[in-house]
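Student: I would love a firmer grasp of how sequence relates to backbone shape in proteins. I am handing you a single protein, as its sequence and its fold in token form. I am told such tokens are a discrete way to write the fold. I hope you can help me see how the letters and the tokens relate. Take your time, and here it is.
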Amino acid sequence: MGLPVRLWRATRVTLHIAAGIATTTFVFPRARPERKRALIRRWSQKLLRLMNVESRVHGAIDAHGGNVLVVANHVSWLDIVVLNAHRPSRFIGKSELARWPVVGHLIRGTGTLFIERARRHDTHRVNRSAADALAAGDVVTVFPEGTTTDGTTVLRFHGSLLQPIVDAGGHVLPVAIRYHDADGALSFAPEYVGDTSFATSFWRVCGERRLGVELFAAPALPARTRHRRELARDAEDAIRTALAERAAATGPGTRDGPAAGPR
């Protein structure tokens, strides 16, 4: 798309982010959890519309009301918005996100649980907080790969991030994320890997004539009495299978150059 369209979309998104920050600052402190989730869902859906991103869900993404750990492959910062548009939840993310200018305030305000990766044992602290939230009926989302990819592959899932749902005795909901162009082929526009900056990825998405994203929700896995490594392996297999089947049906997509490494 031309520069005027990109600028128009970027401006509208910036204003929408400002409105979201105001909501998390002034409304969320007094809002009940269900009200917060409704506001997050509505805000996320509007952001996708502003960026001309069409989303579609396959499967029961709302399976089980609470005490659910959503696990997904990780391609982009846009993953969070897409998931929140359909299944609002608390995310577990790296602490660097909290220090991002402007957007960091929004991320903190939605209840994200942050891991200090430089602190060796911080995962244990975050896992305890996540387990408490899940046991109280909340929904938490993690990206067990621990980093992003360009969407052509799925990295090994780290089982340690699934320990909270084992402790809470809930369910794991595997969700595969796939971005595609107007022809259904894999799109690399949203990718956020290697040396790609947030601004670069954001600008690319603003310039897409049409960008689609599909969520494939596999059947939920009961976590009670299961080992976290076994759960991680089963969730990873479910996501790999969903993405492979979709790629076989629509084509893998092509790149202008070699794929960048993960972040």
About this structure: The chain has one domain: 3-250. Strands lie at 53-58, 68-72, 90-94, 113-115, 139-142, 171-180, 211-217, 221-222.
